[in-house]
Amino acid sequence: MPATDPYPGDPPDSGGSPNPGGSTGPGDPGLADEFSTLLVGIPRLLRRRLRQELTVPRLRGAQVELLRLVAANPGLRVSAAAKELCLAGNSVSTLVNQLVAEGLLRREVDPADRRAALLRVTPEAAERLDAWSAKRKALVGDLLAELPAGDRQALSAALPALRHLAAELQGRSGEDAGEDDDSSGVEDGDQDDDQDDDEDDEGAKHDGT
Question: Would the pTM count as exceeding 0.70?
Answer without folding.
Answer: no
